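Reading a protein record of the kind used here takes only a little practice. These numbers are not coordinates but entries in a learned vocabulary of local backbone shapes. Here is one such record, which you should read through line by line.
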Amino acid sequence: MSVSHKQSLPIPVEHGVPHTKAFDSTLKLLSEGYPFFQRRCNELGSDVFTTRLMGRRAICVSGPEAARMFWQPGRFTRRGAIPPTTLMLLQDFGSAQTLDGEDHRHRKAMMMSLQTPADRARMVTIATEEWRARFARWPGQKRVVLFDEAESVLCAAAWRWAGIPAADIDHPRLTREFSAMIDGAGNAIRRTLQGLVLRSRTEHWAKNLIQAVRGGRTAPPPESPLAVIARHRDRDEQPLPVDIAANELINVLRPVVAVARFIIFGAQAMHEFPEWRPRIATGDDATLTMFAQEVRRYYPFFPAVGGRVLNAFDWRGLHFDEGTWVLFDMYGTNHDPAIWPEPQRFKPERFARWQSDAFDLVPQGAGDYLTGHRCPGEAMTVDLVKSALHLLASEVVYQVPRQDLTISLSRMPTMPASRFLIDVAAPVR
């Protein structure tokens, strides 16, 4: 789908593309959820359209061409492009995601320095230890809620990996707080308010950690995320303000807990497509990679991401003024038949010979990690999903009882309704 233009001069984007019929589409977005953008693209015959959301004019775009446009470095800012409550829950003000230009590149380089292959391997090792400790307890339980277990395991792995002393951790409480932040980032007022209340407690805890490192009362390993963030200096050679450093520490920990959703979707895929489970149990890396990437493509994570035009530009004969609000359709792009044949089928083998151009598979953003706003922890996400699914397939004997495995596309972020229940017989080991 595309819009062709014969005009030789760029025209304002709001006059050059189709507009939705509704005066304001907010209620439609909330009721339809993830498919909202792709449905409008199909109805209007265009991968670019305009609408109103929360009373504001928005330009909505989908597909790989739009991804190249949207993730062009320096073109968009995230400031003013995300609902304030969502921003406060997932990134907060002053974080790397809210910066632009050289300030963003400098801070992002620090965040990426925590995502080296060695860092990722250490995280997987710690997570594996936590999973196996959890497996040992499962046979004594009548039924296991796998989603809750995954969040708890990943939270423990995250704070251990980050170099946070165990004495400073209330693990059940921290897991609940991170879980509430993620779950509250969608469209339910109750969940949003709960997430904001619990995040304030997490911020207080994180500030104390930063101050303890700076005051010499805590001495984490120098290469650990806690030490790196506490001692980071921005371009002005000044330490980060305590509240900003605390936010960045949270922004390193919380996304690890969010990986639980991909793990649960992967467990559901093994249940719905059981022919893949013995292949995953072998531990073959190529098979695990194919499966994990298809889980990330097929199942819904976050529906879209917003940006405001930082510097006016032209694209496809259209002119985007400074300040224009643009929403990029992540879910629809991951289900675009022009990129993914039979997009509604779960087919891990589509990734057997896949070579990404960085603008096709976009569950966590697109483009360059260092210069753009793509999620710095994407590679770690894949590693954690692969490891967890292999462990579940090879080291635990369990049955999946009757339950409601419906995945509501109007709930953002979503998960299986039952949170994926399993009955454990015994660990393999």
